[in-house]
Amino acid sequence: MIIVLGLVGVVGVKLFGILKENRENFRVVLDNERLHVVTVPAGVLQANCILVADKLSKNAVIVDAGGDPGKEFLSVISDNGYFIKYILATHAHFDHVAGFSKMKKRFPEAKVGVHISDKELYVDVPKQPALFNLPKMGSVPDCDILLKDKQILHLGAIGIKVIHTPGHSPGGVLFDIGPGDVLLTGDTLMMGGFGRTDLWGGSSKALEKSFSKFSTFPDDMIIVSGHGPETTIGYERKWNFYSHFMKFKQRSIPSDTTRTIDREKKEDSFVSSSREYL
Ligand SMILES: [Zn+2]
Ligand SMILES: [Zn+2]
C-alpha cells in the first residue's frame, strides 16, 4: 500500500477500497446510443484500464493498461465486435503501460500513442519499477503516434481530443472524449486529489499551469481518472482543487508570500471559474 500511494501520490479516501477490490471492480461508465465506456483496475498498482467505443462505427480505443484487464473487459470488445484502433497512454508510467505488449499482441492493428514529451520516458519504462523495488517489467511495443496538444484522433464520429497537461509527467495528457462527453485524466487528477510531481520529469509549476485547463469543462462532465472511482468536474470543482492544491502550493512557495482566497480568485483561473463554491 505504501508503494502504491508512493507512486500515485493521490489524496482520496475511496481509493483504498478500490485498490482492495481488484478486478471485481469492472464498471460501465457510459452506454448510450453513441458511446460505450467501461473501465477496470489492472496491473500491480491497479490503474484504471479504459475502453471507449463508438457504437456506430464499432471503432474503439484502449486507454492505459497496467496489466491484463481481464475477461469481463475483453468480452465487451468481442461481444460487440469492436475494432481496437488505438492503444493510448495518459502518460508513460509503468503502472499505466505495463500491459501494452499484451494488448498489442491481442489487437495487432491498433496504433500505440504516447505524448511526444513522454517519448523518452516510454522507451525507458521497463526500468521504472526498480525505483519501487518491484521486478523489472517486459518491453513495451513501439510507439506509432507521438501525440500533440490539441490533436484529435477519431473513432468514427467520436473525437478524442488530446490536451497536454504536464506536471505529473512531462507528457501527461487528458483525453476529451466526444469531445465534451467524458474526460480521461490519468494521474493529473483523481477523485479528491492529483498526482505527485517528484518523479521522472514531474513539475509542480507545470501541474499548477495544467490545472487551469480544467476551467473550461462543464460541471456535469464525467471524469475517469488513472486510479480510483469516477467523478465529475462539478464534484472536483467543489471538493478537490482548492483545498488540496493550495496545501500543495503552500509547500512550494516562499514563506513570505501570502496566499489568500481573494488572491487565488484573481490569479487562479480554475478557482475564479468556481466562484460560486467559495
Ligand atoms: Zn498511476
Ligand atoms: Zn503516474
From TrEMBL:
The keyword Metal-binding applies. It comes from the Eukaryota. The lineage of its organism: Eukaryota, Metamonada, Carpediemonas-like organisms, Aduncisulcus. Residues 259-269 have a biased composition (Basic and acidic residues). Residues 257-278 are annotated as: Disordered. It comes from Aduncisulcus paluster. Signal peptide: none annotated. PANTHER family: HYDROXYACYLGLUTATHIONE HYDROLASE GLOC. InterPro entries: MBL_Glyoxalase_II, Metallo-B-lactamas, RibonucZ/Hydroxyglut_hydro. This is MBL fold metallo-hydrolase. Keywords: Hydrolase, Metal-binding, Zinc. SMART domains: Lactamase_B. Residues 46-227 form the Metallo-beta-lactamase domain. Its cofactor is Zn(2+).
